[in-house]
Amino acid sequence: MSFLDSKIKGSKASNSAVLPVVIGYALLLGAAIAFQVYALAAVPLIIGVVALSLARRDWLLLGLIATVPLSMNLEELKIGGVGFYLPTEPLLFGLLLLFLLDRIRGKRLDSDVESHPITRCIQVMFIWLFITTLTSSDLLVSFKFTVARAWFVVGFFFLLTPLVQTTKKQQNVILLYVVPLLLVIGYTVIRHAGYGFDKQAGHWVMDPFFKDHTSYGAVLAMFWFPVLALLLKPNRPPLVKLGLATAFSILTLGLVLSFTRAAWVSVAAAAGIGALMMLGVRLRNLVAVAGVALVTLVLVWDQLVITLERNDQDSSDNLTEHVESISNVSSDASNLERINRWSCALSMWSAKPVVGWGPGTYQFNYAPFQRSEHRTLISTNNADRGNSHSEYLGPLAEQGLPGCLIILTLLWLTSTMGFRTYRAWRKVDRWTSLWAMSIYLGLLTYFIHGVLNNYLDTDKASAPFWGFLAILVALDLNVRKSESSTKRYHQQDLPSPDGAPNPR
Question: How many other C-beta atoms are found inside a 10 Å radius of the C-beta of residue 397?
Fold first, then answer.
């Protein structure tokens, strides 16, 4: 048989295999339409995803990351009344089950990743989540919250870390999220333009991809520094440079038009920290200055409140006035409602200071803790749809003091790692050090934003947050391995105890 004959025969065989599949799917689709059971049409897709997860889990995860900006919440779409995002969360749940199955079978994480301080902190976080779930005021709500947190962390941190061991792979993962995010920004800006870029319209024009402008702004802020670093990488081809410049411009435009004051503040503050890092300022010096500033703030608190209450500038379509409204605690409803939620969180913590009310239960418990002087025009009597508007006070109310301390510890470990990787890579490669700093600053924008909002219960924010941590851990481990190799090399030149040189 000739080569051509074998090819023809193989082609016929493949065609004969494809035909039954096509016919079968056509029959399935017909049945789905006839009986109005449209979910049947998704069965082949589900089978394909399951097969892919077993064969190439890395491909599935990378494809999943690319779908995150485009995912939609079924509850917000009025489909089924189920509050999870498609297609991300069902896939993440599947990856979580496979991850746990691997652990049961004895398959362990990379030893360096498992022993890393960030990993240890995450492990402590889940231990405390489990304990506070058992003591929760609503066991089912807390269980759902803990499982959701688990599939985000497993998918975007534990499974992603082995896939981002080189800067090239790290850049690719960032772009996997950014490219579809640019589509969402384009959709949002075009839709916003139809309303004359009105501030109120800016609160919801990103629907159905983001639930509101604040979560949208928080995500854009996180990617601002990494995309800038990609743009500044030397020796890129002109077309690539143009593409990245366009992406950065679109990202910046989306950030400005998000009208998210917290996002603007987080980018400005992170940029200030970045400038200090480039000037060689150490983290301990920054912490010392922050400590002095905090003490000063406490001492002049009463006078500060009086000064802030004089600001009656409400949020506005005018960007300058909108920035000025950040400090308005006299009439701005958004700012006043945050104070209401924070006050409730502190009162809830006072009632249960050690274990809190249970993960995810704030929204169902804060209503009785609202004080009349803190209630606003947008406060609700039921208080069953809100959150604490803080990544720090939320855990404080739901998981007690240990829950808040775990988040603060994660912030500290992230900052020490960010400063260390930046300094270490600066001695080896200037752009890699800039890249490491951009990832840290992206994380820092969320930690700063987390003072005013909390979004780690969504796939949109969890993917970059835990993903950036995975990248930073990979950069840190590479530095440690390099330093360890250098140390071993130089130790070989040291004289032995008897004075003779060590052999190589």
Answer: 30
